[in-house]
């Protein structure tokens, strides 16, 4: 699911929870990273009730791990901006 300005907190939390096991899967890592970025941008300083709370500082650390993974394993890794073809003789 692509998150956008009309996404709700429930949409974002569902995407985050659906992609918690992102290790080894670039698509899940990208989805999880998008959810974390949305949460960090659209956050109060803390959120929750007496039972559950979200600590945004811990999300920032996970965001850094995800960015490193996506940068290292994403679609654009190892690809050239252009290629040159030569006839084999």
Short summary:
It is built from 3 helices and 2 strands; from the N terminus they run H-H-E-E-H.
Question: What does this molecule look like?
Answer:
By secondary structure, this protein is mainly alpha-helical. The protein has one domain. Helix content is 49%, strand content 7%. The protein has helices spanning 9-18, 26-41, 56-73, and strands at residues 46-48, 53-55. It has a two-stranded antiparallel sheet with strand order 1-2. 13% of the residues are buried. The mean pLDDT is 80.
Tally of distinct domains: 1
State the distance separating the first and last CA atoms: 48 Å
Biggest sheet character: 2 strands, antiparallel
Work out the helicity level. 40-55%
Number of continuous helical runs? 3
Topology pattern, helix = H, strand = E: HHEEH
Low-confidence stretches: none
| Structural class determined from secondary elements | mainly alpha
Give a count of the beta strands, DSSP E runs of length 2 or more: 2
- Note the beta-strand portion: 5-15%
Largest sheet: spatial strand order? 1-2
The chain-level mean pLDDT equals 80
Overall radius of gyration: 18 Å
């Amino acid at each position: 699911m692509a998150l956008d300005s009309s996404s709700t907190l429930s949409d974002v939390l569902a995407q985050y929870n659906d992609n918690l096991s992102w290790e080894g899967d670039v698509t899940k890592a990208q989805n999880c990273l998008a959810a974390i970025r949305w949460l960090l941008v659209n956050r109060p300083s803390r959120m929750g009730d007496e039972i559950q709370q979200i600590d945004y500082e811990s999300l920032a650390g996970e965001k850094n791990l995800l960015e490193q993974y996506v940068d290292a394993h994403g679609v654009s890794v190892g690809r050239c901006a252009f290629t040159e073809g030569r006839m084999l003789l």
